[in-house]
Amino acid sequence: MTRRASSILISLAFAVFLGLVPACAQDKPVLVVHAFTVASGANFPYDMKDLRTQAIVELKSKNGGQFNVVNEAASSQARVYVLDGEVTEWHKGNTAERMLIAAGSVAGRENAKIHYWLTDKDGKKVFEQTDTIRQLFMRNAHERSAGTLVKPFGDKISGRLSEAKLGNGGA
Predict the structure, then answer these.
(1) C-beta separation of 87 from 52 below 8 A
(2) What is d(CA 127, CA 120) in angstroms, rounded to the nearest whole number?
(3) Which tens digit of pLDDT belongs to each residue from 91-142?
(4) Smallest Cα–Cα separation from 126: which of 171, 70, 66, 162?
């Protein structure tokens, strides 16, 4: 084989490889994250849009290999899941109780009960979960308008979605 033919073959192989890269990225389903709502009769003092933004960051970080996490999907996407949910309960934490009495237990920590679900592109529920999220004991930084539950919110949902096995090779 001549040097020129070899160079053309390498260039062709490289072009084919580059053509496959976007196809591999499109194999992952898209996860569209909507802002959660607050159930009727429940109280939740934080901005749901800020909570959503932080959740998207957390889900991209932890579930990026499983999903393309976005806030809006293109209509051309083949596999799309939509994450919706609501806060059904919220309990304000008590720092004095947490630090003096509870010494790290769940007592005194801010917490919320969240109910969330995934629907597929056709609107069919493919996953549903209810969890209680709690303020982290030692890392209780307060996000400006999303509270101390931002990190636990993203962590909990991320873990559950990993367990659901809905990404590549999943449902």
Answers:
(1) no
(2) 9
(3) 887 655 445 554 544 556 789 999 999 999 889 999 999 999 988 765 545 4
(4) 171
Place of tokens 């496959």: 20
List beta partners, residue 86.
37, 115
Q: Which of 41, 44, 65 shows the shortest CA–CA distance to 150?
A: 44
Taken in order of first residue, the domains within the chain and their CATH numbers are 28-164 (3.40.50)
DSSP β-bridge partners for residue 80: 30
**Residues 6 or more apart from 80 whose CB is under 8 A from it?**
29, 30, 32, 73, 120, 121
Q: The pTM is what?
A: 0.72
Mapped onto helix, strand or coil, the DSSP state of residue 37 is strand
